[in-house]
Amino acid sequence: MSTRTLHVNGIDLAITEQGDGDPVILCHGFPGLGYSWRHQLPAIAGAGWHAIAPDMRGYGRSSRPTDVGAYDRATTVADMEGLLDALNVERAVFAGHDFGAHLVWDLARWIPERVAGLIQLSVPLTPRAPMRPNEISAFLARDHFFHMHYFQQPGVADEELDTNVDEFLRRVFWALSDTDRYLTCWEHPAVDNGYLDVLPPAPPLPWEWFSVDEFHYYVDEFTRTGFTGGLNWYRAADLVWEQNAELHDKLVLAPTVFIAGDRDPVLAMMGRDPLAAMASLVPDLRNVELIPGAGHFVQMQEPDRVNAKMVEFLESL
């Protein structure tokens, strides 16, 4: 693997890359980094592709604007289009996880001519919400703690997480790796609780899927950068919702594979049948793979299975 920094869309975007061939761009979410794809880069490169994992805007070694408006959808789409231009390529396969998956779904609607395929992890495409996301979050927070509502007030979550980097990362990685573990957060009221008040304690590292050294890479990076950039992706949710208004009924036509752990709490929190809703919006959905026993960080928890499905899809293009 090698690293470099490219200047795109008015910011510096740090990328880690491996291999030659057509590009596969891997977009992480919260609390992730380009490093979150460390198991996928060599597998994709070994299959004959150019694997590229950026630290997304707001994270790691990339620029971290403080203005929430700098994380709206027009801007984050322009980041990826600028990355394609900087790489001197017309199209790429895009992979997304968590908030990266939200962005990648939108890439296929905003700039479909530049998207050769989608590899989506953990977050299925669903119909447009009838209300602003922050209104929905506030409604849910009347009954229980809900992280997306807690993240909205600038400075509050930032201070809590920035001063407890090791403990927060340990707890959130552990909790999100299993449905029952994470949903214990909902047993607590929103009032007078921060995220660390509701996340369950985590056992000491190493875990089967997470080494001490890997964990400390995240701790070192977020200790240096803080969490505000990542939180701003949540705070821009209403802006993204507004900018997607004209695209809400537009089908995603790119060939797509969807991969998730069957213990992913995100799927559980989406209610009804989000996979059926996704199938109605993505006519070229070639496979839905639910990996037994894996939670939200499926690409780290079950890398061999995820890599096999990713390579299988790439070979079908």
Keywords:
8 strands, 16% strand, alpha/beta, 16 helices, eight-stranded mixed sheet, Rossmann fold, 317 residues
Shape: globular
* Strand arrangement, major sheet: 1-2-4-3-5-6-7-8
Domain unit count:
1
**C-alpha Rg (nearest Å):** 18 Å
- Number of E-type strands: 8
**In the CATH hierarchy, what is the architecture at level 2?**
3-Layer(aba) Sandwich
Would you list the SSEs in sequence order as H and E? EEEHEHEHEHHHHHHHHHEHHEHH
Q: Tell me what portion of residues adopts beta-strand conformation.
A: 15-25%
The CATH superfamily appears as Alpha/Beta hydrolase fold, catalytic domain
Largest sheet: 8 strands, mixed
Description:
The structure is a single chain. Helix 2 packs across helix 3 and helix 7 crosses helix 10. An eight-stranded mixed sheet has the order 1-2-4-3-5-6-7-8, sandwiched between helices. It has one domain: Rossmann fold. It is α/β, with parallel strands linked by helices and 317 residues long. It is built from 16 helices and eight strands.
